[in-house]
Amino acid sequence: MIRTPSSPSIPPTAPAGKPQAAAAPRAAAAPSPAPVRMDVDELFIGTTPPASASNPPGGRTASDVRRDAETLWLIAKPVQPTDGFRTTLRDGRDANSPGNAPLAKQQLASNAPLEQATLAKLDAAQKVAYEHIKAQTEQDPAARLALQVLLIEGKLIGAPLADDGKTLLQTLDRLASEPIHASLKRGELVSDLLQEIALPSIINQHNKGTCTVSTLQILMALTQPAEYARIVAGLASPQGSVNLANGDAILREPGTETADGTRRTASARLWQASLMEYGNGDKTNYDNAKDVHVETGGQGLGQTGVQRVLSGLIDGKPRLLDIGEHPAGQIDAFKDSMLATIRQSANGGSPVPVALRWGKPDAQGKIHGVHEILVTRIADDQVYFSNPWGTEDRMALTDLKKRIIFSNVLPTSG
Question: Residue 207: what pLDDT?
Fold first, then answer.
């Protein structure tokens, strides 16, 4: 949920950044239509697997592996939720869902020849690291499959590196091998993290008002997976501290070492609570158990908080585009410019966090809810986005223009 400032242009809103039966029912509650196959690059730019050899081991290519893995985690169900303005295209299964295991085992066997051929190309140290990580997934076939997918797609080694210069493989090996807090379950944490990196759109805030930092979690898992893993590993360490890319230290929030009744993954608990605390500044304390900022009783993060968190993650200054900074007579033109910038960035491979009015209008036409999403692509008059409720959604560009409040565009684009 977004916390909006008390200003004439954007008045405070009722909590609506987390799933609530009355405000925004989940798409899973609707009848499921016939399955529809949808490739991930319809929603996410730059995620198409690398081209494979004409005669790949086992007759399977990286594209085959990706396509089949998505059928495990992402359920195609094009339905329009009752909020009326968006369509849920695919509903993600949680990374820690036990129902993923049977199909995962089948895919692991099918992918084994290609996995072995890819492993043969790694050096000795890389092979050892892979086995360390693999050992932590023995109780979770879906996590084992996620590791296999990342290997076959070439995402474990090479760029983008974490802020400390380590690859994703090296960072995951650290988490699999080095000491962590005694209350954390290493296998569970490694397994959750692997699945979130392989399929970022399954990341889910569940019943916490953390849509802002959950959206940034999706962004980092999608574009900077090694850095995402580095931060989670630091929060999981015995001391529970890690420096962000800008040098600021963040701390593990008390109580996030164990399940907190939210169904969030171990990695999501650590990430979301810590960055809520960081985002609210030095004078306010975030209580994860109550999901509130103690001194104010408020929830979520506003423009300043999102900008602070994203600036820390990327060690740069995102471009904040905020309709509240413009007089009423200029807002329509500003929104057109804003949407053009978002289109350019997202379609160029740099997804954009966007805050918008959420839910149905009341009798007076006012929309009270506020939510944050990650826009990944704009095609013609349709906006494709990852919703931190664990879904991949679509809405009309006209609806986004009507509802948008602010966005944070990465400094390298737009």
Answer: 94
Mean pLDDT check: name the lowest of 41-50, 144-153, 161-170, 299-308: 41-50
Give me the phi and psi of 207, to 5 degrees please.
Answer: -95, 25
Q: What is the DSSP string of 210-244?
A: -HHHHHHHHHHHHH-HHHHHHHHHHHHSTT-EEE-
Q: Is residue 7 one of the residues assigned to a domain?
A: no
**Does 111 reside within a domain?**
yes
| CA dist., res. 391 & res. 88, Å (int) | 7
DSSP codes of every residue in 338-403: HHHHHHHHHHTT--EEEEEEES---TTS---EEEEEEEEEEETTEEEEEETBTEEEEEEHHHHHHH
d(CA 398, CA 381): 7
Number of domains the chain contains: 1
Structural domain boundaries enclosing 347? 27-409
Spatial CB neighbours of 179, under 8 Å, sequence gap ≥ 6: 237, 238
The helix or strand, by DSSP H or E, that contains position 321, with its residue range, turns out to be strand 319-322
pTM for the whole structure: 0.88
Distance (Å, rounded) from C-alpha 343 to C-alpha 407?
A: 12
Tell me the sheet residues that pair with 300: none
Q: Is residue 18 part of a domain?
A: no
Residues 182-203: what's their mean pLDDT?
98
Please indicate, yes or no, if residue 5 is contained in any of the structural domains: no
